[in-house]
Amino acid sequence: MKTISARQTGIIIFLTIFANKILLLPSIMYQKSQADAVFVMFGIFALELFILWVFLSLKKRYPYQNLQQILKKSIGKYLSKVLIFVFLIFFLFKTILTYSVVYVYLKDLVYQDEFGFLALVCFLPVVNHAVVCGLRAMGRTFELFYYLILAGVIFCLAIAFFTEISIPVFFTANVGAMFNSAFTHLFSFGDYLVLFVFIDKISLEKKDYKKILSFAFFAIILVLMIFSIFYAKYQITSFMHNNALADLLVFSVQFNAIGRLDIVAMLTIMTLGLFQLEIFQYAFCESFVMVFDKLSIKYAIAVFDILFFVIYFILIGKYELMIQLTTQYLSYFSLLSNFIVPIIIACCLFKKKKELKE
Amino acid sequence: MKKIYDWIKKYPFILVLVIILLFFTPFAIFSPGESRKRAIVLAIGLDKIEDKYEISLLTFIPTPNQEFTESNSVISGIGSSISEAVFDAQLTLGKNIGLSHAKTTVVNEKMLEEDITSSLDYLSRIASLSENTVFICTNSSAKDLLLATSSLEENLGLKLDQLISYNSNEVYTMDTSLEAFYRGYYSPQKSSIIGYIEHVKEDEQNQTSSQDNSQSNSQSESQSGGASGEQSGGDENSSSQSAVKQSNSSSQSEQKSLTEKDKQRGSISGQSEILNIGEAVVLREGKKVAMLDIDNINSLKLLTNKKSFDTIKITDVKYEQDKAFDMAFTIKNKQVAIKTDFQNGVPMFIINLNLGVQLSEIDTKGEEFKEESQFTQITQEIDAKIQNVLKNEFVKALKILRDSKADVIGVYEKFYRSNRKDFLKFLNNLDDKDDYLNNIVFVMNFKIQSDG
């Protein structure tokens, strides 16, 4: 089996942690919890480390088995399929959300008009092709572009320091508002879940765990920095800026003469968006193959494309509706996918441990 | 055929690439240039004529030529809303407008009599507007200002955005962008500050010059910073027009007529004139509540750590028995530390200023001047006089802010950050919560050193 290295796994974690968090999220989180959204993010990231711990423990115990094989032994065939089906739905909507956020960003800054069909023609074949090529090819590509993406993100953050920033006013939101904000935007998290669906395709040794954790921590620190600097720069008008990473570069009279510096953010976001779409679609297809074990990955891709087209272009159609869907209804669903399912998996793990001891 | 099929199967990405190329290449080749479909807007002007809005767009029309000149024109549209006016302008132009290069938004002063945000709503919503657009106000119509700009650019190569960038970086040293306006508008203090540029029409200018001619050798006028080069010679006998006085602009500028301002402060002239005298408009809840002149702005700038090289003028500094000179000092270095405190329930806003000043000019008033070097040292008298001037100027500026209840210097924020509980308690005890500036004690401590 073609597997990916610990470094490639780390980069996948790095890329997924950025998903849906660097454009719209800082702005909409500010509306509920003001600058204290940074603490909300910190809290959710801390909680999510539990998922990473579950994954690493699972990988340690079952180095070569896939998720379905692991779950089948503990909870049976059908229940395991139900749990994986939850992941399937999660990744489908996660891909749609990632696509719509990146699409709206590109529409606002590059195309000015609707270019839905054009974007679809550009994105889908490339993403489908990446999925067909498999995880190793994707991993190598990510490895190749990793430093470019990192340089883009750091450049955006660094430029922000040359403009007028001041420490944001913290502790203005009450605890209720912070919990409400965390729950509402829960769907934008659950990034480590991708690792579960291709657990068997990751080759990890005990010494690599630190490497995985360092990538995760590094990405978390960068995301928290984007949030903090964004709030430091825009403060009370943060709610007006929907493209956080790109907006860190602009809105400065000092840079009027330089012109469109935001091209750096544009390239970074486009590359990040494309890679995130590839990861999430791959995760969807892997889940699909595990649920419908008689169908190959090509069927999974075809089903994904049809579902993507139907849900995004016909049922949802509008960006606002997509955001409404993710912040209202899918929050409950992500509670299930992000926490309840990993808890069930953790329980299975402990049960197995107990059995082995006995 | 089988070979080709096998090859494609082996390298499917080539097929993907070919399909994309086949699909997009004809579009790219046969579609007209973007400049044919879209006009590049460099500045936006907003006016309100009765119930209708007029939007004026300073547009850059890219045309191939062998000279290094740009052809700009002002296109306007009228409608009952800004979006309708934009559509009207597009109709006139026969192109869609691209606002991503618009670096200036100008509004007519009259529009600031009402909450301006309702008029700016369209601009704040459309994401295509350049996000660092500077927001300014003008006395006459915004359209006229843009027309004047257009002719200036063609005749002299002077651009409005250059002028505004200079103002932002050197004169105001504070953010006067549309973004900063909204930041102030949505803050608890609801106040913001925007730039002000006057426009003098050609007929007014003619009247001015005819009046000037009729006056018989009244006073000497000198113009500084003007691009027109209309510098009249200075009258040596007129002590009131001394070099020192010219370097420090008068604080009574608001009371002067436009003509006098034009004469004393200089202007940029093309077919009509743009008068940039560093004034700013204070807005509260989106409405104009006060005007700040250059002296007020300079004194408020003392609260920021940004370098601004302002000039301080002091008079009658004694040396050599009875001789007294006027002097001008330039602030070369500035360190500001602001502390907020509550003493017996009274909020104290303490400004500690560490200034490094350099003697830039001495008006000897015709006296013999021997020891020039001694003035590089800050004597007690000079120290006291500089402090006095700065304090007086700050008091004047603060009075304007207090009267208009407009906190554009971030007093609220500083108290909220440092003494949140006490400050909120203090606000709750006030009859009018917006009038907090009047109930705060401002203390200025100076440490003035020579930076010669």
Structural overview:
The complex is a heterodimer of chains A (358) and B (452). The longest helix of chain A has 35 residues, at 77-111. Chain A starts with 5 loop residues before the first helix and ends with a helix. Chain A has helices at 6-17, 25-33, 37-61, 67-75, 77-111, 116-133, 135-160, 175-184, 193-197, 209-234, 244-247, 263-291, 297-316, 319-328, 330-357. Chain A has 358 residues and is mainly α. Helices cover 37% and strands 29% of the residues of chain B. In chain B, strand 12 and strand 13 (346-363) form a beta hairpin. The model of chain B is unreliable at 208-270 (pLDDT under 50). Chain B contains 15 helices and 14 strands. In chain B, strands 1, 2, 3, 4, 5, 6, 7, 8, 9 and 10 form a 10-stranded mixed β-sheet that branches. Chain B has a 4-stranded mixed β-sheet with strand order 11-12-13-14. Chain B folds into 2 domains: 34-200; 300-452, Nutrient germinant receptor protein C, domain 3 (GMP Synthetase, Chain A, domain 3). Chain A binds chain B through residues 108-109, 112, 121-122, 125-126, 129, 132-133, 164, 167, 169, 234-237, 240, 242, 247, 250-257, 260, and chain B through 12-13, 16, 19-20, 23, 98, 100, 103, 124, 127-128, 130-132, 134, 161, 165, 168-169, 175-177, 179, 182-183, 186-187, 413, 416-417.
